TrEMBL record:
It is found in: Cell membrane. Gene3D superfamilies: 6.10.250.2080, secretion proteins EscU. GO terms for biological process: bacterial-type flagellum assembly; protein secretion. This is Flagellar biosynthetic protein FlhB. The chain crosses the membrane at residues 93-117, 150-169, 189-211. It comes from Agrilutibacter solisilvae. Residues 9-26 have a biased composition (Basic and acidic residues). Its main location: membrane.
Length: 382
């Protein structure tokens, strides 16, 4: 990544970018945390099992230095005897080994969790590029690693010098002490030296862990254009979404216009709203809205209804109420049953009326109450 590209990357990485990095196995790692975790757990396990380890060591030394003359007459017992000695040497060390292995698992979990990324096993031939190799060797990361190594050496060397200086008198007195006392004093001195070393490395890890997190997020920073592109990819391109909505509206309109000829009645405003209703006795509990629209679509619904000889009734309050509350392909609301029943009754009477045989049916005023109040935002013209 060039310096100019890095300067343009001023935005924090998105969750998608962080997730993709984790899937590639690219997570923050701290070598100092791993060192202090392994060494610290091993030292704690050693301090907790020091007495048992000492007893086991003395027993092992006694068995290893004793000689059984019977082995000379049975050479086939030499290998089992050697294996037994090796087992006696390994068993006391198992707590230390398990503690170190547990630390190897816990340290990555603290930083970024345990992840198996198959992509990290894929060969990356870019790593064979000499130019990139030189850039890594003399880059900022290499300089930071050099500083950490120098600080690590200074810390460990300083701790060692401090421990030796503090125990110098005890070290001079050890040759005159008994073997067991000298060994115990030496082991105790070693344990305290290791604990001091763990404390120093822990201080270094406390500095390195936040630094690694900062470096990791800085490496994954994004440009403003990358954020916009990612937002478009996740939410969809606005032009494509607009086109999809337009196609959906056209399909819905076409489907409604095809259903208008099957309707029983079209209730209108008379020009701003139009709702086509169909009632099938025995199949639906109430009339179903097969089409509805405003303005140009309302006029198209009325034209289709007139073309196919579907009754068109002008009832502005009912048309407004049906348009606002009813949905296409669903039954009308219960609160509008009475008003719609009045309209359908009128339509059925009109179909059955024969000119010259009685008076022509009249539609009485339809009362829908507050349901048909004019829309305060877009008040239609009656």
């Amino acid at each position: 990544m060039s310096a100019e590209d890095q300067e343009d990357r001023t935005e924090a990485p998105s969750e998608k970018r962080l997730r993709e990095a984790r899937e590639r196995g690219d997570v923050p790692r701290s070598r100092e945390l791993a060192n202090v975790a392994v060494l610290g757990c091993a030292v704690i396990a050693l301090k907790a099992t020091a007495s048992n380890l000492g007893d086991a060591s003395r027993g092992w030394m006694r068995d290893a230095l004793s000689f059984d003359r019977a082995l000379l007459d049975a050479p086939d017992r030499l290998i089992p005897h050697a294996a037994s000695l090796m087992g006696g040497l390994v068993r006391p060390m198992l707590p230390l080994v398990f503690a170190a292995l547990a630390a190897c698992v816990l340290a990555p979990m603290v930083m970024g969790g345990l992840r198996f990324a198959g992509k990290s096993l894929t060969p990356d031939f870019n790593r064979l590029n000499p130019g990139r190799g030189l850039a890594r060797m003399y880059g900022k990361e290499s300089l930071a690693e050099l500083l950490r190594s120098l600080l690590r050496v200074l810390l460990i060397g300083g701790i060692g010098a401090w421990v030796v200086h503090r125990a110098f008198t005890s070290l001079l007195a050890m040759p005159g002490a008994s073997l067991e006392a000298a060994v115990a004093q030496g082991v105790d001195l070693t344990l305290w030296a290791l604990l001091a070393m763990v404390g120093a490395l822990g201080a270094l890890a406390a500095i390195d862990v936040p630094w690694q997190h900062f470096q990791y997020r800085s490496k994954l920073k994004m440009t403003k254009q990358e954020l916009r592109d990612e937002a478009k990819e996740q939410e969809g391109n606005p032009e494509v979404k607009a086109r999809v909505r337009q196609v959906a509206r056209e399909m819905s309109r076409r489907r409604m216009m095809e259903a208008v000829p099957t309707a029983d009645v079209v209730v209108m405003n008379p020009t701003h709203y139009a709702v086509a209703l169909k009632y099938t006795a025995g199949k639906t509990r109430a009339p179903v809205v097969v089409a509805k629209g405003v303005d140009e679509l309302a006029l198209a619904i009325r034209a289709a209804a007139q073309q196919h000889r579907v009754a068109v009734i002008e009832a502005p309050p009912l048309a407004r109420a049906l348009y606002r509350q009813a949905k296409v392909d669903q039954e009308i609301p219960v609160k509008l049953y009475a008003a719609v029943a009045q309209v359908l009754s009128y339509v059925y009477q009109l179909r059955a009326w024969v000119p010259g045989r009685g008076p022509m049916p009249n539609l009485a005023d339809i009362d829908v109450g507050a349901e048909g109040a004019p829309d305060p935002v877009n008040k239609p013209t009656p």
